[in-house]
Amino acid sequence: MKQFASIAVLICLLITGIKAEAIEVGDQLALGELRSVQGQTYTESHWKQRHTVVQVWATWCSYCRKQNVHLEQLVQKLPANQLNIITISIDKTVSPVNAYMAKNSYTFPVVMMTPELSKAIGKRRGVPEVYVLNPQGKVIQKDYGLMVDLDFFDLARYAKK
């Protein structure tokens, strides 16, 4: 029976195209064109201009709520156009995301998880999950779970001077 279940899961993964393995350091992550819940469109060329911090999160995640405080501080600390920052919400709908962003006066950009992004990222260990991409789209750092404030602020080292 266990063997049948394993085969069924494998077939489902092959049919749906969901990446069975998580993206890791050294892998490519193509973000493509994304439109934020704030209405901003980011083209593929945008990601090639500088390093990009990608955070996968959810409004219901307590660790994400703590980490988003640090993320907003990082956004405010860095001059514009030195580091790309994009967050990907895994919430089912955009309504709680918009309410959360307004309630906390957060300004970091948020896109909703799509099947294409989910396929590109693969299986996650949980949220929050942070990836740092170089301008060529290669994952050069990956962290999951709550990052302490000093580790999170260390992401500023990837900012283009």
From TrEMBL:
Which terms in the Gene Ontology molecular function aspect does this entry carry? Answer: antioxidant activity; isomerase activity; oxidoreductase activity
Which positions make up the signal peptide?
A: 1-22
Keywords, sorted A to Z:
Isomerase, Signal
Keyword Signal appears in the UniProt entry:
yes
The residues covered by the Thioredoxin domain are 23-161
Tell me which CDD domains the record gives.
TlpA_like_family
Q: What is this protein called?
A: Thiol-disulfide isomerase or thioredoxin
Q: Which organism is it from?
A: Polynucleobacter victoriensis
Taxonomic lineage from the root: Bacteria, Pseudomonadati, Pseudomonadota, Betaproteobacteria, Burkholderiales
